Structure formats: C-alpha cells, structure tokens
C-alpha cells in the first residue's frame, strides 16, 4: 500500500486524553503521573511468551466471560483488540501508557481493557496473562494501588490465579513474583540535571531498590529529563512496604528537584535563560521534530513555565502533549518511514498551537 493511502489513517486516529494528561495532581510540578500495576497469570496456562495460540485464546475467552459478569468494578471496562488496530492507533495507546510497546507490537490474541477515562487498563496476554494497572495524575501511589487492587479482586473472583504458598503470585519475570505489584511514578527532573546532580540522585534511588527507566519503560531510552521510577522487585515485600519505599524516594526527589531549580535560578539564571532561548529558537525554526527533539524542547519549556517565563508550557499542557504527540511511534512504527515522517512533521505545529492557546488564555494556562 502506498504512503498516500496510509498516512490519512494517522490523521483520523482519535486521541482520547487519559486522566493523567488532562488533570492536575499532587506535586504535579515534578510528578507527571503515578501507576500501580499488578501481574497475574491463570493457573495451568503457559506464560504468553511460551503459550500456543490456543492458550492465548483461552485466556481471552476467560476474560470475556468475566467482563460479562455482574459487578460494579468491571462495569465500565471495555475490550480493545490490539491486532485490529492500525499502527498509529496502537501508538496512541502507548502514548497514553494504556499499553506497553511490547503489547503494541505483539501478535494476535492480545487485548487491552480500558475504562472511559483511561484511568484503568488491563493488558491481556502481554508478558503475563493479565497486567492490571491504574494510572493517575501527579503523586498518588496509594490511591492508584487501591484502584488496581479492586479490579484485581473482581477478576480474582472468577479466575484461578497461579500462586505459590511461599513465593506468592507466579509471574513471567522473577522481579514481579510475590505481590506482583509494580508501582511507579513518572517524574520531570530538569533542575537536578542542570546543576549536575542527576547521576548522584538516581544512584541514591537505585540503592534503595528503585529502578530507573525511560518514559516508555524498559529498553526505550530516556529523553527530556523524564524518568520512570518503580520498585525493582516485588518478592519478599508487602504491598504497603513497596508503596512506602517508593513514596519516600519520590518525596526525596521532589524536594531535591525543587531545591535544584531554586539554586539554579538564584546562582546561575543565565544557564536557564540560555537553554530556554535555545529551545524557543529550535521550535520556531523546526519543520519536523523527532521524539527525542520534541521531548528536549518541551522539557525546557516546562521548566520555563516554572520560572514564570513567557512561552513556557504548563504541567497540564506538557502532559497533554505527551499523550497526543505520538512520541511512542518510534517504537511502534519501527522502520515505516511514511508514518514516522508524518508524525515528525505534525509535532512543531502542534506544540506551537498549544503555546499560542496558553498565551491567549486558553486551557492549561
């Protein structure tokens, strides 16, 4: 199929902003979003990586039966067949963090089960049979865990989970065994980076059992001073211990980041001013932007808003752009140059229009 026929599909792909991208949360100046994810598997069925199509279909059929059952926790959820979506539509789900890059690029019998606000997502047949997650704006680790736990309980009433009396829930990755809980936050840390303390701060977090990844998870790289911080292991810890440990590290990093921003503005404002001026110039001159270039510019303009500079991007608008610019397209679309070219050429105008709306007193000001 030619480029001219495929590209319009990308133009008409709907973007429904998830709650984390359209609402402000606690400590949103630093923390973009919070996610709590539970890994669960059906007893007696091979993990997806070793399962045959018949096994994967059996899991999908079992989940469909659960969704048709009465119960308020599952009433608002609807299934999405990943295999029936075109690549740009899959990229939209990745940007919203409703599915992973791995899930978007897998084969048949993969589902995403989502609610209308895109707060809850259940990945069916990703690395595990079920990955139940809740994503909220800002720093809300306990609340995200409560939502995911309620959905887990609802599925658990009908599905026989694989569980060991000593080791807890059995999962495809040893790091998720035990509670199966992976709690994470997405944090924006430009101040720490600019004052030269980024490596020190992230190393301190890692010594406390916190894993540091890029914004799209494992093996996706880090861009725009945005980092995903999560518990490195689940086994040997209770849910409350995991939540408390991650919460303490996030509180430390938020305090450290805000202190670094203040120090930078008091002692070397020229560094911040020069970086903001460069970002504005690059955005004005750009006719296309790669994912990493867009993230770099947006990160600086988000910092500019913190300092009250004209042309800055507020946290809410920054989050909205993260969810609508299809930054995950580079991982989902791969070498399909016609898709990549379209996404890169639409980004500069999208960012400039949002900044213009803010200047005119529009949403997100």
Considering the chains and any ligands shown, give keywords for the structure:
365 residues; eight-stranded antiparallel sheet; two-stranded antiparallel ribbon; 47% helix; globular; disordered N terminus
Radius of gyration using CA atoms only: 21 Å
Number of helices: 14
The largest pleated sheet is described as: 8 strands, antiparallel
Helix content: 40-55%
Structural class: alpha+beta
What portion of residues belong to β-strands? 5-15%
- Ranges with pLDDT <50 over ≥5 residues? 1-14
How would you briefly describe this protein structure?
With 365 residues, the protein is of the alpha+beta class. 47% of the residues lie in helices and 15% in strands.
Description:
It is a single chain. With 365 residues, the protein is an alpha+beta fold. The protein is built from 14 helices and ten strands. The chain has helices spanning 3-12, 19-22, 53-67, 87-95, 101-104, 141-156, 190-194, 198-207, 239-267, 269-285, 291-306, 315-324, 329-332, 337-359, and strands spanning 31-40, 78-81, 111-114, 120-124, 130-137, 163-164, 168-169, 181-188, 210-213, 226-231. α1 runs parallel beside α14, α9 (239-267) crosses α10 (269-285) and α10 (269-285) packs across α11.
């Amino acid at each position: 199929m030619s480029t001219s026929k495929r590209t319009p599909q990308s133009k008409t792909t709907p973007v429904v902003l998830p709650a984390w991208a359209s609402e402000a949360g606690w400590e949103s100046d630093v923390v973009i979003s919070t996610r709590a994810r539970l890994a669960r598997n059906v007893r007696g069925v091979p993990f997806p990586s070793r399962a045959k199509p018949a096994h994967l279909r059996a899991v999908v059929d079992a989940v469909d039966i659960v969704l048709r059952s009465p119960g308020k926790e599952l009433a608002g959820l609807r299934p999405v067949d990943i295999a029936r979506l075109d690549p740009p539509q899959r990229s939209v789900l990745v940007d919203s963090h409703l599915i992973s890059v791995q899930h978007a690029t897998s084969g048949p019998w993969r589902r995403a089960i989502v609610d209308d606000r895109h707060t809850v997502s259940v990945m069916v047949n990703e690395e595990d049979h079920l990955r139940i997650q809740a994503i909220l704006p800002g720093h809300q680790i306990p609340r995200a865990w409560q939502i995911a736990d309620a959905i887990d309980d609802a599925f658990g009433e009908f599905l026989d989970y694989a569980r060991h009396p000593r080791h807890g829930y059995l999962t495809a990755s040893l790091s998720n065994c035990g509670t199966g809980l992976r709690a994470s936050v997405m944090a924006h840390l430009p101040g720490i980076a600019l004052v030269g303390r980024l490596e020190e701060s992230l190393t301190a977090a890692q010594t406390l059992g916190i894993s540091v990844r890029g914004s799209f998870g494992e093996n996706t790289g880090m861009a725009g001073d945005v980092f995903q911080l999560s518990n490195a292991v689940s086994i040997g810890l209770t849910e409350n211990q995991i939540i408390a440990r991650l919460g303490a590290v996030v509180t430390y990093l938020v305090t450290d980041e805000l202190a670094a921003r203040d120090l930078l503005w008091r002692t070397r404002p020229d560094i911040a001013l020069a970086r903001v001026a460069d970002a504005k110039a690059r955005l004005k001159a750009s006719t296309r932007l790669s994912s990493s270039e867009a993230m770099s510019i947006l990160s600086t303009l988000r910092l500019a808003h913190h300092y009250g500079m004209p042309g800055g991007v507020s946290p809410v608008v920054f989050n909205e752009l993260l969810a609508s610019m299809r930054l995950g397209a580079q991982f989902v679309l791969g070498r399909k140059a016609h898709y990549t070219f379209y996404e890169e050429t639409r980004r500069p105008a999208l960012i400039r229009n949002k900044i213009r709306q803010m200047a005119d007193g529009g949403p997100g000001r």
